[in-house]
Amino acid sequence: MALQIDPSRDALVVVDVQNDFCPGGSLGVPDGDAVVPVLNAYAARFAAAGAPVFLTRDWHPVRTKHFQAGGGLWPPHCVQGTPGADFHPALALPQDATIVSKGMDPGEDAYSCFHGETEDGMPFAAALGERGVNRIFVGGLATDYCVKATALDALKEGFEVVVLEDASRAVDLKAGDGDRAMAEIVAAGARRARLEDLTR
Asked: Is-catalytic flag, 146?
């Protein structure tokens, strides 16, 4: 079924398309950079419709429980101010996209964008509310971690969620993690969509 972007209620949320999560990065997602042109196309559609775009990023301190040295799962990645934390250079989003940073607290993992805040310190949910958003279109990296956590939290917060399956890629720490994550998101009440599902 076709989806129409409604600028009075919809937002695009681009999750963590950062150098460290792309091939060659310290925690590169297989084929992670393939989401960039697709997300650029989504962003162009949302901008043309006058709908807001949110751009999220991991923004970790040097020492955090999220990293292996602190007892976490992951090698160091997306450390504040490093090239690995920069957005992928080919990501072309509207100039007025709102940046949301997460993972700054060394005591939490912060997979979900709902643990993040805008550059002026506004919690992500409040920033969505300020724009009148009640449906989010979510894509980025990675399906089985930050995209999943964000989608599930959004549903718990009462938002409608559309997960962009053509603009997301999985870490797949265990084979099939990405497919299982997508199934979990949909079972929780989200719908999945691809670029061709959006009407111009």
From this structure: yes
Q: Are strands 191-193 and 198-199 parallel, antiparallel or unpaired?
A: unpaired
Catalytic residue (one of 10, 16, 33, 58): 16
| CA–CA dist 102, 91 (Å, integer) | 19
pLDDT per residue over 155-195, tens digit each? 999 999 999 999 999 999 999 999 999 999 999 999 999 99
22 as an active site residue: the answer is: no
Which superfamily does CATH assign the domain made up of 3-199 to? Answer: Isochorismatase-like (3.40.50.850)
Tell me the angle at which helices 177-187 and 148-156 cross, rounded to the nearest 10 degrees. 10
Q: Is 105 a catalytic residue?
A: no
Model pLDDT for residues 51-74, shown as the tens digit of each residue: 999 999 999 999 999 999 999 999
